[in-house]
């Protein structure tokens, strides 16, 4: 007999069926943190409390919650056209949105491939890199290089180039022929730096060693987050990205910036590429593209990459890749409206303007117990706590829970508290974030 399709048996307090991602299910389900609505800078919790959003949801709600312009665009789209395939068909908005995105990407990087998430954007970029070399007769370039502590989502490509041990270690050998650069973080040399550290540009030179080891003719691409977010806010040392760019260029290796976090104003510019003045060959994006209102990701490629496929492919499909929901109409509508909000409200500049206040505020936490580093750039900050002896990550998780209880959402990686609020915040929100975070840190043993 078919099971009846009904909600009649749903029990509001039964949390057992949803296997939650990147969550300690056992702890969460014993003491859930459920959010039921949101507006502007605040979530509302299921027990009726206002929770200040210190993490833009998950690094994505850059325009703040419940923005009427985006909500209206999504509703209007839903009333008109809910789905079109984008294999061999499409809808006008997908092309208009690509123009709008291309207007924000660096000069010459204006070909846009749509995905549904950051993970898919990363795997797409890696596949384009491999196919690009092959199509131009350099099929030996198959090696991909990531970086220790890098986070590039959870696809097999992304975890292969990623460098967060717990995300990789259960999944076997992953993609062959991947290598990693060292990460750029060093507490001894960089602790409590405001903005970009002076020390560490030379770490990019490790790429020369990998090139010598493997031979440039085997290397397809290097992928890095210009600022590593998920691993706990690692700001690139001055000159580091410039060196990576110079070395990749010298050896014909593609450079991919994973801008899933850094895109759309997080650093006070459209993209980190613009902020740092370093132009890669491809950029991945997601999160801020729609402010998280509807899932969407994308890859922007340099024109030369797109053109190589157009020139060199035999007749027919040039790139055998795509998703059923690539350029989903609701996502396109949400993205288009989100980009309009960024423009109309000048949100990237607003983030840039408030970032000195942000920097001073977060660095005022220095000196509290167990705080071993504070780092910041744009509207991001990482506060690193000393790990508890024999229990790394415990202090961090307790900080996350206590902050929530005190009315603040933060993101925690291990013992690092990351703050990355919506770009619409006011100084009073910054003060409140710092006050709650400080109280929480003081209360931790
Ligand atoms: C730099 C980076 N790349 C990729 C991803 C994966 O994005 P998604 O979770 O949308 O798949 C993330 C998510 O945090 C990210 O920070």
Descriptive account of the structure:
With 445 residues, this protein is of the alpha/beta class. It has two domains: 25-63 and 346-443, Aspartate Aminotransferase, domain 1 (Alpha-Beta Complex), CATH 3.90.1150.10; 71-344, Aspartate Aminotransferase, domain 2. The chain is built from 16 helices and 15 strands. The strands form three sheets. The protein has a seven-stranded mixed β-sheet, with helices on both faces. Strands 1-2-3-13 form a four-stranded mixed β-sheet. The longest helix is centred in the N-terminal third of the chain and has 18 residues, at 118-135. The protein is globular and about 60 Å long. The model has no long low-confidence stretch (mean pLDDT 96). Bound molecules: pyridoxal-5'-phosphate. Pyridoxal-5'-phosphate (PLP) binds next to helix 5.
What keywords describe this structure?
Aspartate Aminotransferase, domain 1; alpha/beta; globular; binds pyridoxal-5'-phosphate; single chain; 445 residues
Question: Can you describe this structure in just a few lines?
Answer:
The chain is an alpha/beta fold and 445 residues long. It has helices at residues 25-30, 56-59, 68-80, 92-102, 118-135, 156-161, 165-168, 187-190, 206-214, 240-250, 272-276, 303-312, 329-344, 347-363, 394-405, 427-443, and strands at residues 35-39, 42-45, 50-53, 111-115, 143-147, 178-181, 219-224, 254-258, 282-285, 297-301, 371-377, 380-385, 408-409, 411-413, 416-419.
